């Protein structure tokens, strides 16, 4: 541990004030970056989360050391961590394109709360290092993440009149290293011959020509129609 912080580890008026101001600054720095990028949880939210976690940690220490109550300090911290999960969940949203946004903000908000717990406990070294790394990840790693190639999932609609035809199509998709994440099948039995419609959700591991995939699927015995949704 860094000895310069040793005088600040006791619980008294000055150290309590220092920890609250420290939490205010750390939460504010992380929140500024989120506000600059116009994310759902910004400057004020991060400050309040960090302050709340800090005072919760301090309260547990106070009740145990000063009030001398038979209290499990770790239980307060565990409750804070659980509560942070609910707060972070409010920043996550699913777009119309079925992509998830807000995960980084939720994770940063959760981590900011944990940093607040560390500040309240007097673990300043861990709080400083964690805050620096959070800022590095949120500021500099965003560009790296955008450069990582992602192959999007897609859905295919298959119409067929023989039940075994779908097995052929699914085996074909699997042979192309595509995972089948969901399958919905409906049947129209009002016609002279029953026609089945399957909506297949696919997660490819490689780039594929979707038009060619659908042409290959349509050429299989019993398949009437195949296209990408």
Provide an overview of this structure.
- The chain is α+β, with helices and mostly antiparallel strands.
- The protein has two domains: 3-147, no CATH class; 154-228, Alpha-Beta Plaits (2-Layer Sandwich).
- Helices cover 56% and strands 17% of the residues.
- It contains seven helices and six strands.
- It has a four-stranded antiparallel β-sheet, with helices on one face. A two-stranded antiparallel sheet has the order 1-2.
- The radius of gyration is 27 Å and the shape is elongated.
- The termini are far apart.
- The mean pLDDT is 83.
Quick structural gist:
With 229 residues, the chain is α+β, with helices and mostly antiparallel strands. The protein is 56% helix and 17% strand.
Spell out the blueprint of helices and strands.
Blueprint: H1 13-36, H2 43-65, H3 73-89, E1 93-94, E2 100-101, H4 103-120, H5 124-147, E3 154-160, H6 163-175, E4 178-188, E5 195-204, H7 210-218, E6 223-228
Antiparallel strand pairs: 1-2, 3-5, 3-6, 4-5
| The number of domains | 2
State the secondary-structure class. alpha+beta
Helix content: 55-70%
Rg over CA atoms, rounded to whole Å, is: 27 Å
Major sheet strand order: 4-5-3-6
Mean pLDDT: 83
- CA-CA gap between termini: 58 Å
Tally of DSSP β-strands: 6
Biggest β-sheet: count, sense, barrel? 4 strands, antiparallel
**Which stretches are poorly predicted, pLDDT < 50 over at least 5 residues?**
none
C-alpha geometry:
elongated
How many helix segments? 7
């Amino acid at each position: 541990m860094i000895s310069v912080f040793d005088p600040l580890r006791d619980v008294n008026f000055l150290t309590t004030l220092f920890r609250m101001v420290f939490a205010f600054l750390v939460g504010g720095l992380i929140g500024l970056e989120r506000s600059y990028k116009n994310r759902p949880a910004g400057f004020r939210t991060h400050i309040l989360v960090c302050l709340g976690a800090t005072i919760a940690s301090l309260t547990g220490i106070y009740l145990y050391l000063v009030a001398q109550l038979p209290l499990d300090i770790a239980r307060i911290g565990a409750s804070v961590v659980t509560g942070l999960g609910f707060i972070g969940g409010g920043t996550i949203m699913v777009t119309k394109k079925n992509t998830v946004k807000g995960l980084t903000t939720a994770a940063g908000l959760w981590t900011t709360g944990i940093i607040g717990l560390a500040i309240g406990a007097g673990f300043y070294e861990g709080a400083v290092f964690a805050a620096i790394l959070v800022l590095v990840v949120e500021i500099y790693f965003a560009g790296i993440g955008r450069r990582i190639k992602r192959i999007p999932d897609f859905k295919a609609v298959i119409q067929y009149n023989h039940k075994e035809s779908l097995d052929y199509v699914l085996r074909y998709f699997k042979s192309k290293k595509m995972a089948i994440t969901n399958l919905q099948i409906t049947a129209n039995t009002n016609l002279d011959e029953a026609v089945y419609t399957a909506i297949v959700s696919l997660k490819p591991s490689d780039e594929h020509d979707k038009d060619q995939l659908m042409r290959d699927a349509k050429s299989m015995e019993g398949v009437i129609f195949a296209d990408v949704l």
